[in-house]
Specification:
3-stranded mixed beta sheet, 5 helices, alpha/beta, about 170 residues, about 40% helix, single chain
Length: about 170
Amino acid sequence: MEGLYRVLSALVVVGLLTNKALATQHVVGGSQGWDESSDYSKWASGQTFEVGDQLVFKYTPGLHSVVELPNESAYKNCDVGSALNSMNSGNNVVKLSKAGTRYFACGTIGHCDQGMKLKVTTVSADASSSQDQLPFFFFLFFAYIDFCSFCFLPFASMLPMASLLAISMLSMF
């Protein structure tokens, strides 16, 4: 029985950590990938980029590349010579590690001018996304309490107090 208790405890902890740590991978351009035929402004407007998410640039190496530009002026003028970073593997992952705006373009001559550029505004994970996860956390909490009451019947008298504490915590949100 003690082994089962440890397994459930580990599952609860892993569930809580995994749910919090999940980040979204955004494949730039969707199924088209990083190429001249995509409308990146339109694609980006349908996405929400949060701190911790990743941009995935998929393209044909040698035909395209990805450069990160330092500011909006370089982005608007397609000044790929001022790039902060250059990538050319055909499958590049860029982590969005802080809130703010970042600018990307294709480093191949003429492609940025043809519209192969991307402006991404990253936002902090807000309270509403945390509140969306609350039911999951409370489900795990109550499942844990139920299991503990089954394993430790002598301590069952303490469980109503734990349930009241959990309900009062839920009302704070």
